[in-house]
Amino acid sequence: MDSNKYSVILVSLEASETEGAYLTNAGYPLSYEGNTYQNVEGLKVDLPAESGGLDKDEGKLEGVGINDSSFLTRLSNHYPFSKVEVTVRELDIDLSTDSVSDVRTLFTGLVYQATPMPLTGYMNIIFKGWKYYTDITAGLPCTEQCAWGVLGNRGCGASVVEEEHTVAAVSSYTLTILGSLSDTRSFLFNKGYIEKEGARIKIKYHETGNTFQLSKPAPATWVGSTITIYSGCDRQLSTCRDVYDNEERFMGLGVAMVDYNPFYENP
Q: What domain range includes position 217?
């Protein structure tokens, strides 16, 4: 490397235009493309191996302070962002002018997991490249369930119901809304999802009423906020018929796993 230059690493973690964190291993804050990158002593960046194949190695950030920003605090507490994009760049700084002379983008991808380190005030962040998130399992599913992936015009054509409501209470995996649902069909919102500002949480179970069992806890900060609740489908023929009146478009393959082991059991 040129003796008149030195290199630094910039890491951006962005959930939206206004939500994110910008970190650098330089000894002082750096400004780049309108963002100020805070210097983090001991920041360590392990990038996944580069390959032209379909491997999905993960990268890792170490030494990220949990309380360095409100965004990082929420990230460590597993706040449900819709996605957090990661970009790792290497900058060459010209010593004579103290300006950026060259920029290389080393990685782009998404945060996969944030793991707080107990009693340290720091967390490790695992990130993965886009290949991981585009991986699709091949083969024929052994299931009698409907093969449509989504409701609506992009799927089976069944009408997607959405309602806006105010969150009344959150307790672990349970969320309660103020008032009542406008559409009171049983199991309409079962296996649907709730959404707030792009962040979605799947509804694990709902039959009737204003209480929903979720697949993961909703943040307590959602209490008093407006969320949108979307209808869902468990892909059973009975749901297609009784809830959506859409049986003619049911696309179950009729291939089911037998309820015995054919190697040593008889039907």
A: 159-232
